[in-house]
Amino acid sequence: MSADVVQEDAAEPTRPTQSTAEAEPQQEQEPRSPTPILLKRLSEEKVYKCVNTVLRAASTKRRRFVETVDLLVCLKDYNIQKYKRVSGVLKLPHYLKPGFRGCLIGFKAERKEARAANLDFIGVHEVKLMHSRPMAMKRLAARYDGFLAREQHIQVLNKVLRQSFSKKRKYITPVLLGQPLHDAVEEIRRSTMLWMKSDPAFGISVGHVKMDVYELADNVMAVVTQVLEKLRHGWDNVRSLNIKSSMGPVYQLY
């Protein structure tokens, strides 16, 4: 996090009556109220202003790809050697990416089900054979936005893929017994991963620059709340929060 932090002072955005950009169809979400733990130090208005500034900055230059938006977290008074490193899947109210390319890892009998859910398929046996081919595992991790597998395969797959997948911030989402693949895909599209290594500073993907400002703000508030709940002393462990797009400057949130 050596990038310069820009202090944002943009005016508070007004919610549009109708989106001017074509959005992906999503299930209707109930209005989300900020949690008490979030509002203790951070107001909704501050989140909206910061997110709006990030999106406005990203719109000034067109890219050949859709930029990801990350929340950058820097901790303080958090002994990584003493306390457990915070990690885990965080739930989002809105899709993390505008599109999704997923892969189901399973047995051949599941191939047809994968196609019906618009997923690519790779066999468990094929994945096991990659164990001695690190580059093949890295390419697999980079090829897809998300991976799914039935619960009974997770333990074996994690032994083979965990190291290569963690470097790409990827993980395998378990599909529960009787759970339709479509529901599992919806769940993974509204999820992001928190990876904390040996550094008390880390980034978490919260959305993309094509999102509506209020949708992105919803995602930011949801992620901040869940991070605070994982920290031993909540806000007292937070040194700073910043937001940036892939190619944009860093804007201070807290």
TrEMBL record:
Gene3D superfamilies assigned: 3.30.190.20, 3.40.50.790
GO cellular component terms, semicolon-separated: large ribosomal subunit
Query: Pfam families this protein is in?
Result: Ribosomal_L1
- Tell me yes or no: is Ribonucleoprotein among this UniProt entry's keywords: yes
* UniProt biased composition (Acidic residues): 1-11
Q: Which InterPro entries match?
A: Ribosomal_uL1, Ribosomal_uL1-like, Ribosomal_uL1/biogenesis, Ribosomal_uL1_3-a/b-sand
Ranges of biased composition (kind: Low complexity): 17-28
Q: Which Gene Ontology biological process is one annotated for this entry?
A: translation
**Where is the region Disordered?**
1-36
Q: Keyword annotations for this protein?
A: Ribonucleoprotein, Ribosomal protein
GO molecular function terms noted in the UniProt entry: RNA binding; structural constituent of ribosome
Q: Which domain of life is it from?
A: Eukaryota
Q: Per the similarity annotation, which family is this?
A: Belongs to the universal ribosomal protein uL1 family.
Please give the name of this protein.
Large ribosomal subunit protein uL1
Organism encoding this protein: Rhipicephalus microplus (Cattle tick)
